[in-house]
Design brief:
Length: 103
């Protein structure tokens, strides 16, 4: 059950909630020279760099990994900006939990 752990071990979101139908996506707002980094996704839309949470990974670890992979940059101490749920009905219910950091 979510919320039931001793507090001694590191508990990730996937450990806490299991493999739900909810996708957890982590995005980064990365400033450089008064500009914000964006990337072109597979649908030819501009979006913030980021990606899906890997198993046994915390959101701040995800954004550090994704920024390193996508932009070739290291970030220190990402700061949480927002968490929200994106919902879309494609004939089935889709929920994406989006966690956004700035660095």
């Amino acid at each position: 059950m979510p919320g039931e752990h001793s507090g001694q071990e590191q508990v990730t979101l996937r450990d806490e909630w299991g493999n739900l139908a909810v996708t957890i996506s982590v995005k980064g707002i990365i400033f450089e020279n008064e500009k914000i980094w964006l990337r072109m996704n597979e649908r030819n839309d501009w979006e913030l760099p980021g990606g899906k949470l890997d198993d046994h990974e915390q959101p701040d670890q995800t954004i550090e990994r994704e920024i390193r992979e996508e932009l070739g940059r290291e970030i220190d101490t990402p700061k949480l900006v927002d968490v929200y749920v994106w919902k879309k009905d494609f004939g089935y219910s889709t929920h994406v939990e989006i966690v956004t950091f700035t660095a």
